[in-house]
Specification:
The chain has 238 residues and is mainly alpha-helical. It contains 11 helices and 2 strands. A two-stranded antiparallel sheet has the order 1-2. A hairpin with a 3-residue loop joins strand 1 (60-63) and strand 2. Helix 7 (142-158) crosses helix 9. Residues 5-73 form the HTH gntR-type domain.
Length: 238
């Protein structure tokens, strides 16, 4: 069963890359299951499962007695699952989507840190402090620092004692992994972020909801500003 699941996951990735490279337009008909199965050298069952997954992600649409189609533009509201998938397999999504994800993350994190101030346990505080100490002594690259940043912010969500909130925010961190690695390749970004993390720990320890919310708002705002400026620079260079 595990081998089949791995085949399906790999086939989903191959399909998305294939469809992007071929430049299929919204509403355009795609090759049949048989042709796709032959192309990717998998069984019809595997290709069918992969297509079902892409349909659930609102990436394609299967029409009875008509075939498989790219979703029309007016129907193509990309799901969170699809955005996470794009990130995992290295397909970039638009700059506007990146900033919108940051905006949602900002709303969630500011509220989360308020709740964390009220509900955090001594164990939560100890874990936040431990992560910050590991980061302070880290000599890793952007990937390592990104993982520590993920751990720190997710621990704040854990400190809310609200499991639904943790589940809600996790996809936004998964889909921003590549962006965060890029952000933390810049040593100055890491140093500034680390200092802000220490200030957040102090505010959470003091249960100062107002200070913590203000710090988090500025913390996420700095990331938004960085990527906004980066995009402007890239457009100017072009």
């Amino acid at each position: 069963m595990k081998r089949v699941d791995n085949q399906v996951t790999k086939t989903i990735s191959n399909l998305v890359h294939f469809l992007n490279q071929r430049g299929y337009e919204p509403g355009e008909r795609l090759p049949s299951e048989r042709i796709l199965a032959e192309r990717f050298e998998v069984t019809r069952g595997v290709i069918r499962e992969a297509l079902m997954s892409l349909e659930l992600m609102r990436y394609i649409q299967r029409r009875p007695n008509s075939g498989i189609f790219m979703r029309a533009e007016d129907e193509a509201e990309t799901s969170i699952e699809a955005l996470v998938m794009y990130s995992n397999i290295g397909i970039p999504f638009g700059h506007d989507t990146d900033l919108q994800c940051l905006e949602v993350r900002r709303l969630l994190e500011v509220q989360a840190v308020r709740i964390a101030c009220e509900r955090r346990t001594d164990e939560d505080l100890a874990e936040l402090t431990r992560i910050a100490e590991v980061a302070a002594h880290s000599t890793g690259d952007g990937s390592d620092l990104s993982k520590l940043d993920y751990d720190f912010h997710m621990q704040i969500f854990e400190a809310t004692q609200n499991k639904v909130l943790v589940q809600l925010v996790t996809p936004f961190y998964l889909m921003s992994e590549m962006r965060r690695e890029r952000f933390f390749r810049n040593k100055e970004n890491f140093l500034n972020s680390h200092q802000q993390h220490l200030q957040l720990i102090d505010a959470i320890a003091a249960r100062d909801t107002k200070a913590a919310a203000g710090l988090m708002d500025r913390h996420i705002g700095n990331v938004e500003s960085y990527f906004g400026a980066s995009e402007d620079a890239e457009e100017f260079a072009d």
